[in-house]
Amino acid sequence: MGIYAEKRDKLVARIEELTKRIATDTAKKQELEEKLKEANRLAMAEQFNCKPRELDDIINAEHSLLQKLRASGLSDSELLEMVGIPTDDSGKDGDSKNKDSSDSDTSEGTTEDDDEIKFYGEALTD
Predict the structure, then answer these.
(1) Which of 35, 50, 79, 91 is a plausible cystine mate for 54, CB 3.0–4.6 Å?
(2) By the 8 A CB rule, do 71 and 64 touch?
(3) Euclidean distance between CA atoms 13 and 23, whole angstroms
(4) Higher confidence at residue 124 or residue 31?
């Protein structure tokens, strides 16, 4: 029985060691994920040529505009056509993220909201 008790103690010690390591690795992973979020945010701000603190306002304005366009009866495929993106494969749900960013980058539409898009486009290129 002494052999099994010794094995058990070694296994318990190893499990405790791994548990501590998991906790440490999890904390490191969370820290790296936070750094990644910040790097993504800075990259987006750089891409849109704005300050990071202005990014939320720009994203909110673009999203509001997109929602207004959808509420006016335009479908996602029509919105994509307006910005010059072919709609052959656009019926998939996975394209919705691309639709939002595409609408904010360029616009060729007929509503008065287009001035807002151009305004942000001009502000981002300064």
Answers:
(1) 50
(2) no
(3) 15
(4) 31
